[in-house]
């Protein structure tokens, strides 16, 4: 099987279900950003040493692949893939709470940095926020996209707390933001 089809050479691509869209359509931007986030999460997972973090990131990557498939599906046709659900959001909240319990209360704004793994986690958080904005921008915001927005919102919170947790585990300093004088 050839990997190239040449059907996208004119600047269009197909959704699952056959509908053709311009490659810069908001729906394509949304699932492309999900794919970018998933790729950076793979990099982060490869950098992690703590198995529980690696396992959670792997699980998140699988959820993001499903989200990408949902977004890549024609919204006017029956959904061919399983979307995420409330339990997926609850799992993120539980992980956030567990990590937060071991962290010092946040008293300052922090800057990304302190260690390369922490920085990659912050890159993932920023891409996640962009993915969330792209999904919000889809004009056909139905129930399928609404739960995706909630999941991505919670995921970005998870990634922020994970960055702090990783910094603590690596004994890396949290870089405190100081306002210019």
Structure overview:
The structure is a single chain. This protein is mostly helical and 181 residues long. It has one domain: Hypothetical Protein Ta1238, Chain: A, CATH 1.20.1200. 60% of the residues lie in helices and 6% in strands. The strands form two sheets. The protein has a two-stranded antiparallel sheet. Strands 3-4 form a two-stranded antiparallel sheet. The longest helix is centred in the C-terminal third of the chain and has 27 residues.
Q: How far is the N terminus from the C terminus? A: 61 Å
CATH architectural group = Up-down Bundle
pLDDT under 50 segments (min length 5)? Answer: none
Computed structural class: mainly alpha
Portion in beta strands = 5-15%
Query: What does the radius of gyration come to?
Result: 18 Å
CATH class: Mainly Alpha
Largest sheet, spatial ordering of strands: 1-2
């Amino acid at each position: 099987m050839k990997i190239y089809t040449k059907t996208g050479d004119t600047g269009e691509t197909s959704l699952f279900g056959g509908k053709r869209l311009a490659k810069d359509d908001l729906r394509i931007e949304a699932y492309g950003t999900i794919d970018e986030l998933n790729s950076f999460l793979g990099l982060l997972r490869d950098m992690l040493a703590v198995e529980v973090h690696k396992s959670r990131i792997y699980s998140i990557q699988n959820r993001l692949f499903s989200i990408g498939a949902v977004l890549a599906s024609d919204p006017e046709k029956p959904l061919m893939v399983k979307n995420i659900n409330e339990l997926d959001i609850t799992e993120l909240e539980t992980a956030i709470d567990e990590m937060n319990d071991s962290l010092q209360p946040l008293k300052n704004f922090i800057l990304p940095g302190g260690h390369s793994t922490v920085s990659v986690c912050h890159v993932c958080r920023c891409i996640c926020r962009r993915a969330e904005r792209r999904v919000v921008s889809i004009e056909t915001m139905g129930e399928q996209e609404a739960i995706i927005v909630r999941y991505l919102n919670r995921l970005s919170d998870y990634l922020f707390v994970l960055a702090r947790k990783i910094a603590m585990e690596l004994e890396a300093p949290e870089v405190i933001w100081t306002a210019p004088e």
